[in-house]
Amino acid sequence: MNITTLNPTDYSPEIEAQLIQLFRQLNPDLKLNPLAKILEKKDQLSLVYCQEGDRIIGMASMCTYHVLSGSKGMVEDVVVDINARGKGLGRQLMEKLLDIAQQKGLAEVLLFTGNHRQSAIHLYTKLGFVKSESGLYRYRLGE
């Protein structure tokens, strides 16, 4: 098993299909953007994944953005296949994203997770993430 960063030149429909299948374990109802289109935005998305044989069993992504308060990363879509959980794979994926954040010179890395995801919260706090008191408000367009 190794953690790989997906580069635009590595894109294939097979990789995309496997990532979508894995993502469905996290959120089966969400409409997904085409991966090829997302990868067109140079250096905006860092997507790391883990393969066991020819099967992708874990993934995590981080979007990078730059605002007046600094350059930041937002972690999204961390998911490990249900049959591969409990082996430290989520930690390895997150550590890889944090390494990428450091290489990019980001000031901070942010993430949101549901209160019901206790194992994820435990992982994030062990990695050094601290829960802030600010709230997240969401406005959905097109509904």
Level of helix content? 25-40%
Give the overall shape.
globular
Number of strands: 5
Q: What string gives the helices and strands in order?
A: EHHEEEHEH
What is the subunit organization of this protein?
single chain
Strand order of the largest sheet: 1-2-3-4-5
**Regions with pLDDT < 50 over 5+ consecutive residues?**
none
Most strands sheet: 5 strands, mixed
Mean pLDDT: 91
How many helices does DSSP assign? 4
Q: First CA to last CA: what distance? A: 41 Å
What would you call the structural class?
Answer: alpha+beta
Which range does the strand content fall in?
A: 25-35%
Give Rg in angstroms: 15 Å
Summarize the structure.
It is built from four helices and five strands; from the N terminus they run βααβββαβα.
